[in-house]
Amino acid sequence: MSEPNGEAPAGLPSGGAVGAAGRVRTIHVEALARVEGEGALHVRLEGDQVAAVRLEIFEPPRFFEAFLRGRSCHEAPDVTARICGICPVAYQMSAVHAVEDALGLAVDPAVRVLRRLLYCGEWIESHALHVFLLHAPDFLGYPDAVAMARDHKPIVERALAMKKAGNDLVAAVGGRAVHPINVRTGGFWRAPTRAELERLREPLRRGLEGALDGLRWAKGLPFPEHDFPCEYVSLRHPTEYPMNEGRLVSTAGLDVAVADFDASFEEVQVPHSTALHARRKGGGRYVTGPLARYALNFDRLTPVCQEAARDAGLGQVVTNPFKSLLVRLVEVAYAFEEALRLLDGYAPPARPYAEGPLRAGVGHACTEAPRGSLYHRYELAEDGTIVTARIVPPTAQNQASIEDDLRALLVRRLPQDDTDALRHECEQAIRNYDPCISCSTHFLKLHIERSP
Amino acid sequence: MTRKRPRVAVWKFASCDGCQLSLLDCEDELLTVAGEVEIAHFLEMSSAKADGPYDLSLVEGSVTTPTDARRIQEVRAASRALVTIGACATAGGVQALRNAADVAEYARVVYARPDWIEALGTSTPIAAHVKVDFELRGCPIDRGQLLEVLSAFLQGRRPRVSTHSVCFECKRKGNVCVTVAKGTPCLGPATQAGCGALCPSWDRGCFGCFGPHEQPNALALGRRCRELGLPDRDVARLFATFNAAAPAFQAAREAHEAADRGAGGGA
């Protein structure tokens, strides 16, 4: 059977449509939302020059921002969760914070604790999945974790146990692991009892040990020498490693409120992708995600995690994207440790959710999805109906950088004639960014055009 | 030892990946399942890709592009049995909200260059295109039900998946009815079981993510929601989410949208 995903969809301009920067059209786009699912990589080489690198994403458009118009603002968390089955909590969190911002609604401190617990669960399940099931097999030469388990069974079994602990945490707070049902404007439909959360303590404790052991194991993986320094963007919070709140900061000195997202970033559409490319206004491409969070918030990690990072040979800023695997593991350890800390101090809120009057307004929020900053903006009518919605997912923000990183990698590896080896390296390099599950694994069909 | 293992493939169409993720979320069973079957094609999990034919294909997602309309024919031709997983594949998913809208206008809202976007005017379930041997409901599907469907197809029997309403699950769990006790609008009476009556167990009304059950009376349920004080527009919204294009839910939605227009609402 032919591989149907490897061809650009009909109707798109082809043949070097973005071969020259001048052909990329710079257009402001009001809205974007889709899960990054399917794609291909197109590389054009001219002599010893890399003439074009196109990461083609052609996940069918689902038009979330269009059909959110006319819905109640209270529907935003359940509807936008369906953008991504891997990180639905991120969509729910950005949605409720943005809607509460528009409504001027303050939440109970215990609700804040529960939201952070929920996010810890998602970071754990998403990162553990990526690190062990999707990324590590690359370094060891296996097609997948099942094959890897034949030789490394204890590693894979422990990874699955960590992933399960994360999923169980999401389910204990959110009702179920994929598309939780318990998140609502102002808080939760029902707050879990102390006893319901307490049974998670032992798996979380074992998970923390597993993550630290995993880091000791993973630091020995054969990481290719590669350096791709670029501007990193993430949230930064006064006291915490960022998840739900903070200002948007960057390694190039950006420091703005989330409400200034639109003043600081823009998105352009390119013909080869249904995901929009984001960039800094007046600047260029940037990267969001674990490498960015870590570099901008190392001082917010716990002493245990800082020490584990140093033991794994990581500096306070990591610019080798292949080592994002180690940084994800540091974040897994942090999420386990943070969840245990939050569990210690948890008492259910007096009321599971806050309520307030509906009103017209605009609300913004950015939260840290496992893959990076996820921005939501809603404009509401007086009765709380959504007038416009804008959603900027992390993969769209990273796409331009992924292409440039691949270009840098290819320039170095050009003497390599073996197309299969090149394809494998490109695939692995894309997975460094954990773009999203279906495209972070093995979707790649590498076309190499060579002209003299 | 050399017995031939059944060959299983997993395919993605327009979707969020959450249903195929449910397979990887079977943490306790994954390695066992992978030992019982040959996972011949599962892009989310493996770079090893084997050509068909496949004994069982699991299909996630709906058909929303001309390319995918062709691709599902190829998948069907290569598969002995085909099972659809999740609301996108069984009902068109949340993206079927475009079906009643102007998709060209949608594309203009989301994209600066809608002419670069290839999309059909509708999001349709897989069964609208090819023969489907079993439909597993849910947004997302339930892991336990997925394992039951896999086991059943591998053993050549019908899956034991109940087709009654969520109400039965509430009764079995001993839940107090949220509608009777609190007046909370709940789609449980018209919605297929399978989630374990999740929402009512968390003090909220069911929002129908498993879609209509075999013989739903969605119109009567819509009227009941109206009596509980929910405006027509909100009743219509309640039926118009992840299974919006399932016929029973679509009829209820349209009835309440018409009533809302008749009452001069929606302004």
List the helices and strands and how they pair.
The complex is a heterodimer of chains A (452) and B (267).
Chain A: E1 39-46, E2 49-57, H1 64-67, H2 76-81, H3 88-103, H4 109-140, H5 145-151, H6 153-174, E3 183-184, E4 187-188, H7 194-198, H8 201-218, E5 232-236, E6 247-250, E7 255-256, H9 261-264, E8 265-268, E9 277-280, E10 287-288, H10 290-297, H11 303-311, H12 324-344, E11 361-369, E12 372-380, E13 386-392, H13 394-413, H14 419-431, H15 437-440, E14 446-451
Parallel strand pairs in A: 1-14, 5-10
Antiparallel strand pairs in A: 1-2, 3-4, 5-6, 6-7, 8-9, 11-12, 12-13
Helix pairs in contact in A: 3-4, 4-5, 4-6, 4-12, 5-6, 6-8, 8-12, 11-12, 13-14
Chain B: E1 7-12, H1 18-24, H2 30-36, E2 38-42, E3 54-60, H3 66-77, E4 79-85, H4 87-91, H5 103-110, E5 134-136, H6 143-155, H7 166-173, H8 178-182, H9 198-201, H10 218-227, H11 232-239, H12 247-262
Parallel strand pairs in B: 1-2, 1-3, 3-4, 4-5
CATH topology of the largest domain in chain A: Cytochrome-c3 Hydrogenase, chain B
Q: Main β-sheet of chain A: number of strands, strand sense, barrel status? A: 4 strands, mixed
What do we call the CATH homologous superfamily of the largest domain in chain A? Cytochrome-c3 Hydrogenase, chain B
CATH topology (level 3) name of the largest domain in chain B: Rossmann fold
Q: Briefly, what CATH class of the largest domain in chain A? A: Mainly Alpha
Ends of chain A: how far apart? 33 Å
Beta fraction of chain B: 5-15%
Gross CATH architecture of the largest domain in chain B: 3-Layer(aba) Sandwich
Q: What general form of chain B does the structure show?
A: globular
The average pLDDT of chain B is 92
Radius of gyration of chain A in whole Å, from Cα? 21 Å
CATH architecture of the largest domain in chain A: Orthogonal Bundle
Number of helices of chain B: 12
Q: On the 0-100 scale, what is the average pLDDT of chain A?
A: 84
Residue windows where pLDDT falls under 50 for at least 5 positions of chain B: none
Overall number of strands of chain B: 5
Q: Order the strands across the largest sheet of chain A as they lie in space.
A: 7-6-5-10
In quaternary terms, these chains amount to: heterodimer
Helix content bin of chain B: 25-40%
